[in-house]
Design a protein that fits this description.
Phytocyanin_dom; Phytocyanin-like; Phytocyanin domain-containing protein; Cupredoxin; electron transfer activity; 2 helices
């Protein structure tokens, strides 16, 4: 009886996890989609601190096309909850 309850608990936990994370399953996500994602272009300090409060540029509609014309590093972060602190940020390094 105890083993059946444990197995049922494990199955219920797996179902709950699957339901919770269905929105991040392997699929394309676009800036400005129904999740409301926004990708601001920020300074190095904003990138390091995950601070999008003073963005250089904010992209809120998508799909977004970003034109990068200067040879330097360009920093982008996610502004949703703790996504940036969890690693959802990227750098574009434009070289000659």
């Amino acid at each position: 009886m105890g083993k059946v309850k444990l197995n049922l608990l494990i199955v219920m936990a797996m179902v709950a996890i699957t339901m919770e994370f269905h929105c991040i399953a392997a699929k394309d996500h676009y800036v400005g989609d129904s999740f409301g994602w926004a990708r601001p272009k920020v300074t190095l300090a904003g990138y390091d601190a995950c601070d999008g409060s003073n963005p250089i540029q904010l992209y809120t509609s998508g799909p977004a096309t970003v034109s990068i014309n200067t040879r330097s590093q360009h920093f982008f972060i996610c502004t949703v909850r703790d996504h940036c602190k969890a690693g959802q940020k990227f750098v574009v390094n434009l070289r000659s």
